Amino acid sequence: MNEHRTVPDPETLIADMGARARTAARVVAQASTETKAQALQEAAVALRASESEILDANGVDMERGAANGLTAAMLDRLKLDSDRITGIADALESVAGLPDPVGAIIDESSPPNGLKLSRIRIPLGVIGIIYESRPNVTADAGAICLMAGNAAILRGGSEASESNRAIHTCLVTGLKEAGLPEDAVQLVPTTDRAAVGAMLRASGLIDIVVPRGGKSLVERVQKEARVPVLAHLEGKCHTYVHAAADPQMAQAIAINAKMRRPSICGAMETLLIDRAFAAPEALVRGLLKVGCEIRGDTAIQALNDAVVPATDVDWDTEYLEPILSVAMVDGIDAAMDHVARHGSGHTDAIVTGDPVAANHFLSTVDSAIVMHNASTQFADGGEFGLGAEIGISTGRLHARGPVALEGLTTYKWIARGDGTTRP
């Protein structure tokens, strides 16, 4: 597992991988839905057959991670067992069954000039994925890129290097069995951090980079990249409880949005309560009762002695744990102003029985996902019916929100004429 591997310097390595990926991408872009699905199905078969080898590789990573002081949470993300390997294989088969976006007609028109125009979905090309911790991302990211007709260059974290290699081997087996080029899904064979920088500078070789990991990773990618980036930095999600909100609904949504899984990017981090809402004290008490620490402004502090005073930093913090900043606001415009000043453009929600207020919030708040009477924890590609996602995008270009197969495509114009010339 730990034999010495000689690899070129990072710049040369990524240049070579990028060139090979570009060649493979041209093949995969033309591959049939059935061929791409076969590659993923065969990879799933290989994963199940290679369970013992994958577990051995993961054991090396786990032992090394423990020795290097990884936290219990990080070790849990890293750990593989029989059930998790089965889950990875099942996910590959699930992606194989998704509708293929490549070649789909977005729209058609016939302008007066005599042309027949259509916009057709095509793959993005070569996608670089930079990720940490979870070895399942090796399979998930490779599968989603492939099914959308792209080639992928994967750079996993050093803590999962052996696990990633073992899983990648199964993906290569699937590609071979389906007659697709092995270079369609490549794994960077070095843990040298300089390889990340080389990927970020690989303009012309890598078409887009998708980071999946903690804030420091995403910040680095967004700061250094010379290629487009599809990512979100933080999930500073808000829920606004409007004056016309049903108190029981508001409490159920608030508790779920914060406490279901506090560590995910769709978890609510700030609760805004309208000053005219009928039951603010009960709402705060309900959150405290389920173990949520509340950091509130002076109006919220007056509702319950257990509320901790909020500081200016709290309104701009993604806690990712059972801590919530709570503020009292004077109406919907004040709430939306707070979201605009402190939000991250990820997911924001309004709870109200007033459809006019709901529509005002939904049309005005400029976030990738805006919700009415629903928990922000639904910010997930699977929950949106996309089958799988490669991440959440909070940018304004190309794709926003959960990015799945369609989000990994672009389009081209097809113009058909009949000897048509322009006067």
How would you sum up this structure, described in words?
The mean pLDDT is about 95. Helix 1 packs across helix 8 (about 195-200) and helix 2 (about 35-50) crosses helix 7. The longest helix has 21 residues, at about 10-30. The chain has helices at about 10-30, 35-50, 50-65, 70-80, 80-95, 135-145, 160-180, 195-200, 215-225, 245-260, 280-290, 300, 330-340, 355-365, and strands at about 105-110, 115-125, 125-130, 150-155, 185, 210, 235-240, 270-275, 295, 310, 325-330, 345-350, 370, 390-395, 400-405, 410-415. It has about 425 residues and is of the alpha/beta class.
Describe the secondary structure blueprint for this structure.
Elements: H1 10-30, H2 33-49, H3 51-67, H4 72-78, H5 82-96, E1 105-109, E2 116-123, E3 126-131, H6 136-147, E4 151-155, H7 161-178, E5 185-187, H8 194-200, E6 208-212, H9 215-224, E7 237-241, H10 247-259, E8 268-274, H11 280-289, E9 293-296, H12 298-301, E10 308-309, E11 323-329, H13 332-342, E12 347-351, H14 355-364, E13 369-372, E14 391-393, E15 401-403, E16 409-416
